[in-house]
Amino acid sequence: MVNTGKPSASCETCRARHIKCDESRPSCMRCQKLKRICPGYRDLSKVRFGGKPASRKGNTPTYEHKPKSSSEYVGDSLLSDFVGSETLLGQRSLSSMHFRVPEHEAAQCFFLANFILLPSTATKMGHLNFIIPLLNTASERSPLRSAFSAVSLASLGAQPNSGGLLSKAKLSYVQALKQINVALTDPKLAKEDSTMATTLLLSVYEAMVRPETDLKGWHSHIDGAVALITSGRRRLFRSEISRELFLAVRELMVFLPSLIGTSKAPNRGVYWWTNRVPEEEVSQRYALLNLHVAELLEDNNKITTLSPQTACNTEIIVEFLTRAVQLEKQYRDWQENQASCWEPTTVAWIDNEDTMDFATSKAFSERVEAFTDLTAAYRYNIARSSQILIWTSILRAVAWTGYPKDYRLTTSYSNARRRCIELIDGIIASIPYFLGWKGRSDEALAGESQSACSSNLKVIGVGAFYVMWPMFVAANSDFATPEQLAFVKGRLIYIAENSGINQADRLIQVC
């Protein structure tokens, strides 16, 4: 776009891209076509050019893009989640962009493009999409703004030639922690949606930065969000944003802690968490089953370590085993009969070659899956992962009851092996979809469409966030092959190096 010597009236994204904007109000049509969240337009009356205030005479009124609800953003496409959410700033353009766009503005645009996902028609679920309307109403000194600055700077700072931003991200994070601690002491502020959203953003920051020892920082923010939900100090679910916040917290609470051995039975009970907000039947059943899985995993950590093999302990183990078998059947029935709307389709078949390097390959041998959208893919893989964890609990109980006999000679082990191999194969087949592979010549899906700033970065943050933990479950199963383990570790390295989610590094260490 040629510099005419006067301030550009383009939206923030088009200005960053240096392309012509159609200047539609309230949001740019280019952004809408790419299914992006348009950041809106700046106030030209406040722009200084050549050291002088811009003339106010003849100015047209400026409009600020303030969506009333994050549910207004709806994306519906087969694979356009990648095209519409690809990286805003590319590796080769980062250093030059810093001279043209203020670093905070560039970081925020980068984060919006890579880590904010609009609600889909299949699941009515997005990723952090509630942040936008909350930021529009947040004060300058709000902890939400500090947390948003922290995650934005951290995400961009993980890219090449941008490492200097990480120290600034840390300062914003510390400031957000101080502000949120003050807000939590105020009964009124503690009830605000922005307080809950801040807590969730802080957990995202912990996932992005390189953990010093373990995942406690990330997990503590999830615990804090759960405590806010269950404390009774918030007026819950009176708005669409409150509903989305509740569902986001429940999604984190139910499944992710179980993967690091800290699973807890849901506070306030399973049915309290499934009756707070209206949901479609398939989503409500999905949540209910995962809540029961969380209960099962907590009991698994306690019960299957009982000693000695007394009659009383045996009775406890048998009851636990019966419950686990019933839950596995319920989950399998749900997946076969109710979750068909989330099912993947096979879009490619990769022949197994002797020369294939699984540690660097973008797709594993055999089938490659695609889904209706990212959130449907995420939930379907969580369902697969939950069933693997159920079978792990079943086998631990079988081994306990049959000791000292070899549990691998039992019918339960044969059934578990057959089913877990099927589930692991499915997770492995889905990984290319999340990371943007399009099915030929090892090219990335994002490469098919020019991204907002001529990006050559081919992985998006949301897809990486969504696929990391199912990959972790698959890799830690006794039924994963050495080739699958090598492939998963290679993809986790790819995520850590290309998306800036350093939590992937930690997962590699424990795979």
From TrEMBL:
SUPFAM superfamilies: Zn2/Cys6 DNA-binding domain (SSF57701)
Keywords: Nucleus
PROSITE patterns attached to this UniProt entry: ZN2_CY6_FUNGAL_1 (PS00463), ZN2_CY6_FUNGAL_2 (PS50048)
InterPro entries to which the protein is assigned, alphabetical: DHMBA_Reg_Transcription_Factor (IPR053175), Fun_TF (IPR021858), Zn2-C6_fun-type_DNA-bd_sf (IPR036864), Zn2Cys6_DnaBD (IPR001138)
Keyword Membrane: no
Organism encoding this protein: Hyaloscypha bicolor E
Stretch list, region Disordered: 49-71
Pfam families the record matches: Fungal_trans_2, Zn_clus
Name assigned to this protein: Zn(2)-C6 fungal-type domain-containing protein
GO molecular function: DNA-binding transcription factor activity, RNA polymerase II-specific; zinc ion binding
Residue ranges annotated for the Zn(2)-C6 fungal-type domain, each copy included: 10-38
